[in-house]
Amino acid sequence: MTDLNTDLTPEVLLAGIRETRLVAIVRGTDGGAAAKAALTAMEEGFRYVEIALTTPDALAAIREVRAAAPAGCFVGAGTVLTAQDVEHVAEAGGQFMVTPALAESIEASAARGIPVLAGALTPTEAYEAMTRGATAVKLFPASIGGPGYLKALRDPFPGIPFIAVGGVGLDEATGYWQAGAVAVGLGGPLFGDAGSGGDLAPVRERARGFVALAADFDRRVAAESLR
After folding, report:
1. What is the pLDDT of residues 206-219, one digit of tens each?
2. Active-site residue numbers?
3. What phi and psi, each to the nearest 5 degrees, are found at residue 70?
4. Does the pLDDT of residue 222 top 70, yes or no?
5. What is the 3-state secondary structure (H, E, C) of the chain?
6. pTM for the full model?
């Protein structure tokens, strides 16, 4: 069954994430502040932003961002664990789901045709996530093994798209892309305390830095392919 509340298919989401190399993750103590932070990142070039359901009034924040998002930008939910979570997020207008682990929300999202980035750490978990219907695997927490672990994980699973999340900042992102990550997920290193009402000006500056870094990486990859 295809959910009528989303215009983002798994194929389109994956292609877009491969192109932008970036996913933003908002988590905080204030849903209104989280919505503002999400929209700020979108204004600075981020196309995919998730709002964690652990944030108070997260569903209202998702509704607000969905209504105000710039063209070509999409809002999803993070920390989606249950089938009921999926239902509530879809009703709020969430366009993709993100899980921290192998949760029932993976199958529930896939059954609705909603893209889902499924949290996994081990080879077994990554493989199972894809068999359950994940669009991509969120390698979490990536900082446990770093880019070297991701590279080793990709050797037996070259077809699994991995997104590195957890402890990834401006200094670490390139290493994960070089190791084969299709994208990196950025929480605190991008938003700081903005999801709890903190200053948005640093978010703008950091967002521009990440977008520029991704563009520079793509330019270098393109140049190397011509050699």
Report:
1. 999 999 999 999 99
2. 50, 138
3. -60, 155
4. yes
5. CCCCCCCCCHHHHHHHHHHHCEEEEECCCCHHHHHHHHHHHHHCCCCEEEEECCCCCHHHHHHHHHHHCCCCCEEEEECCCCHHHHHHHHHHCCCCEECCCCCCHHHHHHHHCCCEEEEECCHHHHHHHHHCCCCEEEECCHHHCHHHHHHHHHCCCCCCCEEEECCCCCCCHHHHHHCCCCEEEECHHHHCCHHHCCCCHHHHHHHHHHHHHHHHHHHHHHHHHCC
6. 0.94
Cα–chain center distance at 58 = 16
Please say whether the beta carbons of 183 and 21 come within 8 A: yes
User: What is the pLDDT confidence band of residue 2, given thresholds at 50, 70 and 90?
Assistant: very low
Task: Tell me which residue has tokens 């793509």.
Answer: 218
